[in-house]
Amino acid sequence: MSLFCIPIYVYTSYLLMKTTPVPDLPCLCATLRRAARALSQIYEEALRPAGLRGSQFTILQTLSLAGELTQGQMAHVLAMDSTTLTRTLAIMERQGWISRRRGADRREWRIQLSKAGRTKFGRALPRWQKTQSLVRKKLGERRWDEAMKFSNDLTRAVAA
């Protein structure tokens, strides 16, 4: 293959990937994980200029809505495993976006937004809102509402 052919091959492969429909998968878990990855890429790209990852934005948003939470409550609300949440919270605490204090039980941590976290969240919020609107428009109102309901129902059913 000549050097001239390589860029054409790469470009042709790219076009085929963009025009080939995404196949159905027989597994609900695989299908939802694939959808989550595709959706996450859009949100990650939108939040990157604000200096946030999607998981960090979600934690800031959760704390903005709920106020102070224990780490256990947050893990439950987000259906996140403790190890992943601990790692993400440690990064966010180093950045100064959250503050933690001991609860009544010395093993319990209570987490809340710091002033810097509220500022970071406020600056990222318009990017998130724009992305929400874009995805909502691509799906249409009815499918958006169905997707939100299905996702919440599924989480409640399997996380119980």
In short:
The protein is built from 7 helices and 3 strands; from the N terminus they run αααβααββαα. With 160 residues, it is mainly alpha-helical. The protein has a 3-stranded antiparallel β-sheet.
Explain what you see.
With 160 residues, the protein is mainly alpha-helical. The protein has a domain at 53-160: Winged helix-like DNA-binding domain superfamily/Winged helix DNA-binding domain (Arc Repressor Mutant, subunit A), CATH 1.10.10. Helices cover 71% and strands 8% of the residues. The protein is built from 7 helices and 3 strands. A 3-stranded antiparallel beta sheet has the order 1-3-2. It is globular and about 55 Å long. The mean pLDDT is 90.
Give a quick set of tags describing it.
160 residues, 3 strands, Arc Repressor Mutant, subunit A, 3-stranded antiparallel β-sheet, mainly alpha, 71% helix
How are the strands ordered across the major sheet?
A: 1-3-2
Count of separate DSSP helical elements: 7
Beta content comes to 5-15%
Could you describe the largest sheet, including whether it forms a barrel?
3 strands, antiparallel
Question: What oligomerization state is this entry in?
Answer: single chain
SSE series: HHHEHHEEHH
